[in-house]
Structure prediction request, 128 residues.
Amino acid sequence: MTTSPLMPAWGVDHLPTLLAHCRRCGTYTFPSNAWGCRECGDDTLDKVPMPQTPRLRNFITVYGDVAPGLTSPVVVGEVEIAPGVVEEALIAVADESQLKLDMPMEAIGADSADTQRGLRFRPLKAQR
Ligand SMILES: [Zn+2]
Prediction:
């Protein structure tokens, strides 16, 4: 199956193969190194970029101890990165007043040594 994804909004070059796309049923699975399709269990998975502009589905500001290396408060969001795939991730904003539900987001890496687990998002700038 040939997919023609929208241009992914990567902040760093090494993140593009983020999702696994099932050849059998077409379901997207995250992360791309999953053992099998989350829908049908098939292991014929292709690593693919995000097929859509990520959308912010929910967000919350977390106070108190969050995780080592993070200074609270932090904004955590649920971001839809593919149909039916919603991931919890840090949202790189100063505070949640900059956020609106369902707004388009872009993925960025936390730093140059980043992996999929360091994935973060920020609001997609209007001009592109
Ligand atoms: Zn499948």
